What does this fold into?
Amino acid sequence: MKKSAVITGASRGIGRACAVELAKAGFDVLINYRSSDSAADATLALCRDYGVKCVKFCADVADESEVRRMLAFAEMELGGVGVLVNNAGVSESGLFTDMTREDYTRVFDTNVWGSAVCAREAAKIMIAAGGGKIINISSMWGIVGSSCEALYSASKAAVIGLTKALAKELAPSNITVNCVAPGVIDTDMNACYDKATMADLREQTPLGRIGTPEDAAKAVAFLAGDGADFITGEVLRVDGGFVI
It folds into this structure.
């Protein structure tokens, strides 16, 4: 398998940590981002410390034409796409009775369609190359659901379903498809919660702490490595025991 990886939403948080962990493991990396060029440059600098080739590409994963260009760029610059990490995602908090069609479209276009179209385009490259690995980032809320996070929970449950279906479909092409389901992680996405809420979530986590982006990234690096060659269709929870 070509040691090259495309990580979506890699300018910060879990995506940045995934890019760094894969660079540390010797992967050349493409860092995808949608808006923050300076944040993407910061991720590039961290990855280049490991002596691998690093490139960045600005693309909205919900835009099919931009995804095609991004994967073609990765193939040209990195010589292939051995690993795809579908990390880009958005959230929408609030009462379900207040949700709108626009809210639904924004969340599902990025979280579900974005993951699907990236996987589709990467799979074409992987099939031609004789194999590869697709790793989707879901959430523990995709497993158990979260109050006032109905759309986000539903979208992340769909990512799990997509993972399992693609694992079956792509296995004959030597492509594994797995999913990481983080728990409460210290990222910008959780900045909407106040201190009391975060303290309560910490208390509900059996390991007694909030997770770090690196916790999730290390699970991704494992699934990307040779040690996970016979694992596919798996949902690996990285949640400190929150969902047991």
